Amino acid sequence: MPTSLHDVSAPAKLNLFLHVTGRRADGYHLLQSVFTLIDWADTLHFETRAHRQHDGGLSREDLTTPLPADDLVLRAARALQAATGHAGGAHIAIAKHIPAQAGLGGGSSDAASTLLALNRLWKLKLSLEQLAAIGLTLGADVPYFLHSAHAKQATAWVEGVGERITPLPANLEPARLLPGHALLVVKPDAGLETAAIFRDPALKRDSFAATITGFAADPGVGSASEEKPNDVEHNRDRGAQSFRKFLLEDSRNDLQPVAQRLCPGVTQALEWLNSLGLSGRMTGSGSAVFAWVAPEMHVRARFSSTAIAVPDQMQSRWCRSLDVHPLAHWA
Ligand SMILES: C[C@@](CO)(OP(=O)(O)O)[C@H](O)COP(=O)(O)OP(=O)(O)OC[C@H]1O[C@@H](n2ccc(N)nc2=O)[C@H](O)[C@@H]1O
Ligand SMILES: Nc1ncnc2c1ncn2[C@@H]1O[C@H](COP(=O)(O)OP(=O)(O)O)[C@@H](O)[C@H]1O
């Protein structure tokens, strides 16, 4: 019976676009977004503790950056104990690599990987739906990370406050839409607090709500079922092209104008990308921004002797979007 799990990955996410389409009665904002995972991850290690002590038998060790005392990893473990009555504990070590207050979802991903790891280690056998319900109490992005591990597909169309998740059809996956492209992710030193953006009176809250089915051109839906195989391919291709255009040109991050006002580093990072001929966009509630980089430029930039110089007060990283969550083999 395994009593430990080592090198458990918790990858960062990017919001390829983010529209605010309304507001719930409790004040939370309704969003539409495409989430994808990237190869920038925290690493967690879990060891079971046999007996609950005064602290619930839970302890955490920060291997890199110090985290808040009651961080999302411990809160996820405690929420799982509370939901199941499990009497065992765990020691969790975490090597933090994803920058905080970046819109990269590091804390939420740590929480999701913790729920998946402890569900396994403690043999709780909770379903995806049960884990996602616990996850949503910890953060709106946690259900997405859980679903991406179960769907065996990283990219998803996400709605509500983050609880309505539809895996993207294969023809709309970023790796197919932008083959060979890399992502240049830039994080200004200054971070941004999510709550400050959502409470700003200037935030645009009335974006038009799109539908993913319109892009998918699924041959099994509506009139498409009458199509011949060639038409099906043609329609899929057309759907993929219009989705690509939507992602790159016709969508935006509605949180970005407020973020740029609150954090000059966001504008500086976007301007730097612009000076390289790249069109950048913020992820989530910032402050990190990203740009898709065509294969030619990616190769040139990585291997030329005059490597791209990153301005002071920001860090940059070349990333790839992941086809599958690193823990997908557990599903
Ligand atoms: C914006 C997104 C997009 O993926 O992620 P990040 O970029 O922060 O990672 C998420 O919706 C972040 O959701 P979540 O992780 O729950 O945000 P929190 O920091 O807990 O939210 C702080 C506060 O922002 C407001 N808030 C948050 C989410 C939302 N859909 N509407 C809101 O109005 C609420 O007042 C909430 O109390
Ligand atoms: N394990 C964790 N990793 C990072 N931040 C955490 C963690 N647990 C709690 N937090 C808190 O949550 C906040 C938001 O998490 P973060 O990973 O920065 O997400 P995002 O940048 O996507 O909003 C952080 O500023 C930090 O105070």
TrEMBL record:
Coiled coil feature spans: none
High-level lineage: Bacteria, Pseudomonadati, Pseudomonadota, Betaproteobacteria, Burkholderiales
InterPro entries listed in its UniProt record: GHMP_kinase_C_dom (IPR013750), GHMP_kinase_C_sf (IPR036554), GHMP_kinase_N_dom (IPR006204), IspE (IPR004424), Ribosomal_Su5_D2-typ_SF (IPR020568), Ribsml_uS5_D2-typ_fold_subgr (IPR014721)
Keywords attached to this entry: ATP-binding, Isoprene biosynthesis, Kinase, Nucleotide-binding, Transferase
Family that this chain belongs to: Belongs to the GHMP kinase family. IspE subfamily.
Residues that span the membrane, as ranges: none
Active site: 13, 141
Catalytic activity annotation: 4-CDP-2-C-methyl-D-erythritol + ATP = 4-CDP-2-C-methyl-D-erythritol 2-phosphate + ADP + H(+)
Domain GHMP kinase C-terminal, residue spans: 241-299
Name of the gene: ipk
Protein name: 4-diphosphocytidyl-2-C-methyl-D-erythritol kinase
HAMAP family to which the protein is assigned, alphabetical: IspE (MF_00061)
Database matches in Pfam families: GHMP_kinases_C (PF08544), GHMP_kinases_N (PF00288)
